[in-house]
């Protein structure tokens, strides 16, 4: 086999191994949209490397070119609309890559695996696959250090094992990268064996035992090591418990089928995109109509996201919840709920209908008065069963249209950032003007109709980019595509702009009817909707998400086609729902008040950034530091022994020369080697004299009966090493910094020790099998045959 064909085969197998190593990321992503782009990235890396090496491009430039190709491919994926001809970089192209990368890192801080695959995550995964491919190609094809490819090949598996928090990564996800690693070892071994020719080991000839096939031995060894690593890595990998790559701003889900929500809006798209429609909870109601089940209310918009306000929750739910904010006093029908949460739903927030007044549940659950959100510190709703009583509030259109001015305590629900995109306010003004809305309710109804009806021209699309920042909402209004998160967030912002207090609720749509007034809620029922405030009726649910997903909007939000301005109802108090037949509960003033504020701000990311930067610096400095420590230990072991000191100096020169790219023949005499080093490093007369002094000390140590002590040997060695290092090319200097000869020799020595151990195990096994076979043969020979009849 020619060297070219061997080189090509190794390139292809390195690419295959890199692609296989990325497959464990299936376990932490919801969709597989990334697999083909990742495969193309790996193929581009392999093709670029093969062509450039065939053209004789300097080896150090090949990985640089491969990384450039990966970046260009990422641009094709996420920035083709701002590139010349779809792939030629421009200024906008570079800015887009930076923005998308930031989007990806934002998703990693918001979600716990498994995560959706918007374009930011797509960029991270495909870029990661490309980097793994570059490293594997460089180690296997360029440096011919195939065993070291195990480190990048295990990278994606280690990431997947470390970010799954609820369930450990299944062991079989280690098989794809292990298979790629084994294929690389076998390919490299075959190439090496073919170049040597066939031979038998001396140990096999001495023992008379047939030599075990080397490839079979390597297969058994790699299989054993792979099995050990598959078991050990998940246990050793650090587990990220709050976000994919850092502290999250909300919950997420663990592995397997578990749904987890702490700040659920960041999990909406993930739950809606899940392959499995996981059962979350089941509830039975005393009313005939189902209910939206709310988890948490997001009442602060800071320009980047909707989130919970600061809300300490000192009051327990044991004595009941306070009267709903803004709801007039009176008697309202009550609906009883029996709620059973499955083992597959995990949350510190308690799923409840709004407005709940009483809860019967074990544990320390506390409420936030203005929102009636219920949360536990250190507790979980998983596998819980509890009961609740909720008021049935069904205001009429006339009551909502006649609502008075909002009370001062909801003024914070009107706050908006100063840099709100102009398109948001312009569209809101246009909607209200076109509808001729003259009061807050008519304005709110007009917004809802615009989002749901043909006027807005929106398309519901769960594949849309997640997020509800001001920029994301501007894109949403421009593209007219999104899912419930954007519909709810945008309507709430527009309502605030129009002077209507608004917030965003996150939870579930009613679910599927099971019979006997029982409904089953699943992960695909995850939803977000806006709640708008009307004095006297309190917080009222609106539904801007298209009807194809949510069904009809609430009756109280729909203005009849006939004369909507004709009041025909008593506006003094909301009327009960027709389906609620349970006895009414009067308002209990003793339960009023409540707490004033909520969740916690996300921890600062700067500590993580600083730690990451220090770790990166340590990663690059470690090889050089380790080599220097090894050299120091070698000199200490030599002590005052002249022979040991001379060999230590010679070892320093050998490593320095090899780092500089100077050929070193271990079979050559010290004098011949010294002459070669002097010529290759272009030493001057003084430096040659010092080198001759060092050569003489080595000859004394090796050939003299009693070597004479040599003074200043280490200083002389340092004096020679400086010009030797200076003669190295830039590429050699980089290689010597990242992977000095001292470290490579230590790795080779450890590798030989491991191979010797495996050889001993193989030889012992062969001897035992041969002894067993010989004993069995002797028994058959010594056993007399029965006489023939």
UniProtKB/TrEMBL annotation:
Coiled coil location: none
Tagged with keyword Transferase: no
Domain Transglutaminase-like: 476-546
Annotated TM spans: 12-28, 34-52, 64-88, 120-142, 149-165
Ranges annotated as biased composition (Gly residues): 591-600
This protein's UniProt keywords: Membrane, Transmembrane, Transmembrane helix
InterPro entries noted in UniProt: Bact_TGase-like, Papain-like_cys_pep_sf, TgpA_N, Transglutaminase-like
Domain of life according to the entry: Bacteria
Region annotated Disordered, chain positions: 550-603
Classification via Pfam families: TgpA_N, Transglut_core
Gene3D superfamilies: 3.10.620.30
UniProt keyword Membrane present: yes
Biased composition regions of type Low complexity, renumbered to the chain: 569-585
Name of the protein this chain belongs to: Transglutaminase-like domain-containing protein
Species this protein is from: Jiangella ureilytica
